């Protein structure tokens, strides 16, 4: 099964990018949600789109020994790790808006502020890794390899959503059933795929799952 995914994932990525871009456009004309939540969701869809788009470019340019290949593979991999933390930040904003508008909370839980801070640190670490090889490095053939600190990159995408889930669970009664399901899927589907991806190589199931749950968030909403 993994071989099938590996052989077709570039085409799947392109299809998911198109779907994500379409949802972002549809959100512009959507009238049934508040303006703030609309722009937060557009931000989330945009992050998901660029996350998968640059992940696809990273695969396309790996091993390409040209000046363009050298630049593209490094820029693409940096943005993949950067946007992975950014998507956590975007979901935090979405959850905060839900709790204020639908939940009626005047003050958001402190855990949400901590998650924003941690996701910001994750984006900074992605920049550090681009120059130090913490998460990844490239050999003389311009081929990507996991770095010694690769697993550190998965701490934030796994730990932060779990923290967010504690907030969701605590305020479960403030959400409709469909919204609650969409929040749970958004958190646990990428986490499950992230654990699986630790043991697989050359397959971007985490990033593809993030785009899928981002698309599903719109339909549930």
List the helices and strands and how they pair.
Layout: H1 2-29, H2 35-61, H3 67-101, H4 110-132, E1 136-138, E2 144-146, H5 155-170, H6 177-198, H7 205-220
Antiparallel strand pairs: 1-2
Report on this model:
By secondary structure, the chain is mostly helical. Helices cover 76% and strands 3% of the residues. It has seven helices and two strands. The chain has helices spanning 2-29, 35-61, 67-101, 110-132, 155-170, 177-198, 205-220; strands spanning 136-138, 144-146. Strands 1-2 form a two-stranded antiparallel sheet. A hairpin with a 5-residue loop joins strand 1 and strand 2 (144-146). The longest helix is centred in the middle third of the chain and has 35 residues, at 67-101. The radius of gyration is 18 Å and the shape is globular. The mean pLDDT is 88.
Strand ordering within the main sheet: 1-2
Largest sheet descriptor: 2 strands, antiparallel
- The general outline is globular
Strand element count:
2
Cα(first) to Cα(last) distance is 32 Å
Q: Helix-strand pattern, N to C? A: HHHHEEHHH
Structural class: mainly alpha
Question: What are the defining features of this structure?
Answer:
about 220 residues, about 5% strand, about 75% helix, 2 strands, two-stranded antiparallel sheet
Question: Concise description?
Answer:
The protein has 7 helices and 2 strands. It has 221 residues and is mainly alpha-helical. The protein is globular.
